């Protein structure tokens, strides 16, 4: 089955600096790569995702890049703010259009702390 | 539109007891799943369902049963609780690409 490795496990940055979290996956058939943010005591929430036909996607201060050849993808957060402090999870899956079924395999998470 | 709801929010069980964690969604999603979250382990898939009457095992299914009699509901049953099942449990429903998580159930087994 799929295996997703995520690094680093903890990351501290100064407010305003950039943060980068990296993930690798093992199943070359995986074609969908979401990132979730989980604040303390809350549910995971999708912040950005990328599909295998795209190499990069941006949404304001966050961006995700995908290298299918190397089987790795990364989350980039620019101009970090204290409210970005949370645990971030990457995930990978093989998604089937039409049928609506897929399984997510998650990385173990990165605890990001943004220091004011 | 409540999204995904879970009950209870907190539960304490004694070893050997059984219970059912409830999950319901009102988004008419065919796909639903159950995850457990343990410190440092991320979210691990327990069971999932691709539609009413269809369920399958995920990564960590032992000790758990599920059924899906309606599109809306996907309960998770612990048959004989063990301390190793102490965890936070999240139910999710999804479109093809996006999973929507419920608020979670924090379960402690003593």
Task: Give an account of the 3D structure.
- Chain A is mainly β and 116 residues long.
- Chain A has strands at 4-7, 10-14, 19-25, 32-38, 45-51, 56-59, 62-67, 72-77, 86-92, 105-106, 110-115.
- Chain A is globular, with a radius of gyration of 14 Å.
- Helix content of chain B is 0%, strand content 54%.
- Chain B has strands spanning 4-7, 10-13, 19-25, 31-38, 42-51, 54-57, 64-66, 76-78, 87-94, 99-101, 105-109.
- In chain B, strands 2, 4, 5, 6, 9, 10 and 11 form a seven-stranded mixed sheet that branches. Chain B has a four-stranded antiparallel sheet with strand order 1-3-8-7, with no helix packed on it.
- The relative contact order of chain B is 0.34.
- The interface between A and B is medium-sized, with 28 and 26 residues.
- Compute the number of strand runs of chain A: 11
DSSP, total strands of chain B: 11
Largest sheet of chain A, described in full? 6 strands, mixed
Radius of gyration of chain B: 13 Å
Q: Shape of chain B, please? A: globular
Provide the structure class of chain B: mainly beta
- Span between termini of chain A: 41 Å
* Major β-sheet annotation of chain B: 7 strands, mixed
Uncertain stretches of 5 or more adjacent residues of chain B: none
Low-confidence stretches of chain A: none
Order of helices and strands of chain A: EEEEEEEEEEE
What is the rounded Rg of chain A?
14 Å
Helices and strands in order:
The complex is a heterodimer of chains A (116) and B (110).
Chain A: E1 4-7, E2 10-14, E3 19-25, E4 32-38, E5 45-51, E6 56-59, E7 62-67, E8 72-77, E9 86-92, E10 105-106, E11 110-115
Parallel strand pairs in A: 2-11
Antiparallel strand pairs in A: 1-3, 3-8, 4-5, 4-9, 6-7, 7-8, 9-10, 9-11
Chain B: E1 4-7, E2 10-13, E3 19-25, E4 31-38, E5 42-51, E6 54-57, E7 64-66, E8 76-78, E9 87-94, E10 99-101, E11 105-109
Parallel strand pairs in B: 2-11
Antiparallel strand pairs in B: 1-3, 3-8, 4-5, 4-9, 5-6, 7-8, 9-10, 9-11
């Amino acid at each position: 089955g799929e295996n997703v490795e995520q690094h680093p496990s903890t990351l501290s940055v100064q407010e305003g600096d950039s943060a980068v979290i990296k993930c690798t996956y093992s199943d070359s058939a995986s074609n969908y790569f979401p990132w979730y943010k989980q604040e303390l005591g809350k549910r995971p929430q999708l912040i950005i995702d990328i599909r295998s036909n795209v190499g990069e996607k941006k949404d304001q201060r966050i961006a995700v890049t995908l290298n299918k050849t190397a089987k790795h993808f990364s989350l980039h957060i620019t101009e970090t703010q204290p409210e970005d402090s949370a645990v971030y999870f990457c995930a990978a899956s093989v998604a089937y259009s039409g049928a609506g079924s897929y399984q997510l395999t998650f990385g173990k998470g990165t605890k990001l702390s943004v220091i004011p | 539109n409540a999204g995904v709801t879970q009950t209870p929010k907190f539960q304490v069980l004694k070893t050997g007891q059984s219970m059912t964690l409830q999950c319901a969604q009102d988004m008419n999603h065919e796909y639903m799943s159950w995850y457990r979250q343990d410190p440092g382990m991320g979210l691990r898939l327990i069971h999932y369902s691709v539609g009413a009457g269809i369920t399958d095992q995920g990564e960590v299914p032992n000790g758990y049963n599920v059924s899906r009699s309606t599109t809306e509901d996907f309960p998770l049953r612990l048959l004989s609780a063990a301390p190793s099942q102490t965890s936070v449990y999240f139910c999710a429903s999804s479109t093809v690409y996006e999973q929507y998580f419920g608020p979670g159930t924090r379960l402690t087994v003593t």
